[in-house]
């Protein structure tokens, strides 16, 4: 399958001529919108507002095209080369319409008429008006975060196969949320859910962008049903950069009411979220998280956030690692730095004065997101700040930077703090089976997107069951092996699946010992399971039995299933410190040192946590200094190769000093777990912006990410003028 994509950002389709393509030998079919008119638009998975439903994306454009790269036709041919040649022969006639590229000040065009505002997010608590009326001072900023996204090493792809003998539609290449995607594909294609099965392979990183349902996923499955032949689709890199979800792209107008010591009395934020041409599966998730998580680790007595969702003729948006929090942390921490400058204290002291105290835990924020009330379950923010500053040798670092600035260098350091959310419910189910050879299978409905699911789940199972870790195989992302599953997103897997695994393993251990007690003619209480052997606690009182032998002698099989349910998320937290040097001639920024401290309650596998943090840092640096999707005045994307969309390499990413702490285990699960997937990325833009301000000795200099050399040179030129 090859997708024919719109070459223009906005227009009315007059005709699509497929005759020449169909004449090419090896071409089996070409579909346009009329061939798939029975397939509904792609539904929302999270945070769906009723007002957003008219803006869902069809699998093929109908009357209008709304961004460059939108699918308008698909070609099916013997091989990819013929399919590409045929796609070039499809001729479209499109009457151009005005392209809306910036909609922060007014709603944009949808179809041929001015659209009303698709949706507004409102969150808040306390008496905002009274706080600003009684404030000693008000600090106001306008800040923005550019458009960028996750760029996995592998582009998207899928193979669909219809097994007519079993009436089963299979899709291989699923990721992230296989069970939701299975149910949704079945619904969209008019099939029973049990007649559709999804299979996850080794897909590498997810980062929020991979594994959602896109038009291509639906089309490849519909084609397999129609032609009763396997259909393969793999996008090229240009397609990925113009068609897969973008993210970020927000402008904030934020103000804080403060007292004479810089303590926050209230925060009032109005922001605009550019979601591109359509509302995809994430619907309002990103702006909702932005509004809900902006207060962070600070005491904010009154708060109001109003987020305007706007549509433009750009690639549609979704989530990307720390969605809504990368943006809101940048805004909040820029605001804290501005407050420090206003009252004349340093950036560390202003944070100390405003941090939520440990004694306030659990701390009810008075806000909701993702269907849950935000209650910080545990945390000692001041303690982690102290540990981070000690790890960074902050006092000596400040003296060294001062001396270097005196010698003419532009060097500085910045700090940023944050609270993350993780462990989103409502459930996860795990089945554990003992095979006849004594090996263990753990079957789960979560997905593996490079975060180490197989390792962590096997560790937890081995510890609770009493078997060797290397003897455990973790099965994930296979909808035919387990009927329900929530997948992998929102840093939820270790918390939810980990606890479900512990419960199932504990249950299975009890069953194993009870069955063994009958065969060994003893009581279960005097038996133990150690390294696949059932032994007596008094090792000298009789022979042992292997787990494999027990499994073979028990005709019903040895297995257990358990579900862990949770109605509240858990909240890890952290501190980043960045030291940076600015090149006055080129506007380039070199990160000389980076320190990250992250408290995740309990680290099942510290090395995996460090890997998550290092990867998140690299992506955060990309968004802070390099990565940005740009468009010309007609809506033509300018960032369609890696020559234009700049990715950080090992040269731009510094060695990072990491401090993984366990000072605040979560009281919401027995292991005390919190998620670790997004804390490496969350505050990077904020920390680097603070370091650049310090290097320039100009508080508030950075107001937009990414801080490209061109923008930084403009900042320095303005300061000089």
Give the strand order of the largest sheet, numbering strands 1, 2, ... along the chain: 9-17-16-15-10-31
Overall helicity: 25-40%
Number of strands: 31
Radius of gyration: 27 Å
Summarize the biggest pleated sheet: 6 strands, mixed
Low-pLDDT segments, ≥5 res: none
Contiguous helical run count: 17
Determine the mean pLDDT: 95
Strand % is 25-35%
Structural class: alpha+beta
Distance between the termini: 56 Å
Cα shape: globular
Structural overview:
- With 721 residues, the chain is α+β, with helices and mostly antiparallel strands.
- It has 17 helices and 31 strands.
- The strands form 9 sheets. The chain has a 6-stranded mixed sheet with strand order 9-17-16-15-10-31. A 4-stranded mixed sheet has the order 13-12-11-14, with helices on one face.
- Strand 28 and strand 29 form a beta hairpin.
- The longest helix has 27 residues.
- The chain is globular, with a radius of gyration of 27 Å.
Summarize this entry quickly:
With 721 residues, this protein is an alpha+beta fold. The model has no long low-confidence stretch (mean pLDDT 95).
Draw up the topology in text.
Blueprint: E1 2-5, E2 11-17, H1 19-23, E3 27-31, E4 64-65, E5 71-77, H2 80-89, E6 91-96, E7 109-110, E8 113-114, E9 119-125, H3 128-133, E10 137-148, E11 157-163, E12 168-174, H4 178-189, E13 196-200, H5 215-227, E14 231-234, H6 237-243, E15 247-258, E16 264-274, H7 285-293, E17 302-310, H8 325-343, H9 347-354, E18 363-369, E19 372-376, H10 381-391, H11 394-406, E20 410-419, E21 427-434, E22 440-444, H12 453-465, E23 472-476, H13 493-519, E24 527-530, E25 533-536, E26 545-546, H14 547-553, E27 558-565, E28 573-582, E29 589-599, H15 606-626, E30 656-661, H16 684-696, E31 704-705, H17 709-720
Parallel strand pairs: 10-31, 12-13, 16-17, 22-23, 29-30
Antiparallel strand pairs: 1-5, 2-4, 2-6, 3-5, 7-8, 9-17, 10-15, 11-12, 11-14, 15-16, 18-19, 20-28, 21-22, 21-27, 24-25, 25-26, 28-29
Helix pairs in contact: 7-8, 8-9, 8-16, 12-13, 15-16
